[in-house]
Amino acid sequence: MTVPSFPPGFLWGASASAFQTEGAADADGKGPSGWDAFAAQPGRIKDGTDTSRGTGFHRHYREDVALLAGLGADAFRFSVSWPRVVPGGSGPVNPKGLDFYDRLVDELCAHGITPAPTLYHWDTPLPLDEAGGWLNRDTAYRFAEYAGIVAERLADRVPMWITVNEPAEVTLLGYALGEHAPGRTLLFDALPAAHHQLLAHGLAVRALRAAGAGNIGIAVSHSPVWTAGDSDEDRFAAELYDTLTNRLFSDPLLTGRYPDENFAALMPGPVEDDLRTISTRLDWYGVNYYNPTLVGAPTPDALDSFAGFGMPEGLPFGIREIEGYEKTDFGWPVVPEGLRDTLVQLRERYGDRLPPLYITENGCAVDEPAEDTRRIAFLDGHLRALHEAIDAGVDVRGYFTWSLTDNIEWTEGACKRFGLVHIDYDTLRRTPKDSYAWYRDLIKAQRADGR
């Protein structure tokens, strides 16, 4: 049974990020990032992987672009390493760093592949991290400067831009729970990090357009929140969790308001003025989707860890295990209909304020080196669910699977594999999996019918 036909001009792509793939941590004048420093702390990377090697993309990028061309991919979503371009986070620009992305963009264009760079995929320059990172308002202004620098160099060949990736995860995992860089455990006092990332996005949109860039979006994670019970306490907990992980980011971006005045009051600076910047018009909105979350009132049987991350006591909500679904190797439930529901809910919530959508991440961790049938089933199911959302009237323009190759999965190291292409971390040899062939054949079939 083949995947249904997608609309004409639908964009098919794959994704990667700089910290997870590039390696070459000290090559070409690159400065350290907060993630480099965090990963160097004993015990932070669970399997002990040397994250500084990545997948060797800095050296193997031509090989990886050839793999993209073999897929027939329309676009490649990669990220630009801020500390490779501006090692200090502000101040002198590293020309060799820009040269690398110049070569990468040229290589993609030579193969007819649209470059779709993400300007921030979590690798904050270490000097900015040490000065407070996203808790410091100045970081937002430094990010806008960096965005303009990259656009001035690449905007003549880059027709699609992404400002920030998953500000919710940076806030939650990096500043609230301490599971990711920079390792802060501030709980609700982490909210300024959310506000400053959103401000950075809005300032960057303006800087990009001033430098001649267009077709600008952002990649925001969205997870349907299921209520664990019928009590008022369960409903309150689920609504709060939905607000913290979904609406705290989408509402300011798409409506110019925070979802609750109590949250707005916790944000730093001239919030009303900032919201006008944050809600600067987007050309499109990116959705990263992996799985739903089951949430209820805090009880002793709530999970003390979620998706591999520790959950502290005293939170006003409790995460529950979702039963009855297959799990990925990350323990995440495989729920394709959650993608459909997410997209339909976004359209219903924001109406005409919702710009065209792209799925900027969707994939699964499955350690099946060659015959990765579980990944094929995952992609097949989610693309069918995506098609259902389009049939329901949601304007979705493209899909980027996560990820092109296996990569360094942050604190998990090399043991969680998301790629269509297997990476041997000893030799850095690339070997396409069966899912690579499946995705290639899907794209070819879609094009055969003029789509």
Automatic annotation (TrEMBL):
EC number: 3.2.1.21
Keyword presence, Amino-acid biosynthesis: no
Molecular function GO terms recorded: beta-glucosidase activity
Entry annotated with the keyword Hydrolase: yes
Domain of life of the native organism: Bacteria
Family: Belongs to the glycosyl hydrolase 1 family.
Name of the featured protein: Beta-glucosidase
Lineage start: Bacteria, Bacillati, Actinomycetota, Actinomycetes, Kitasatosporales
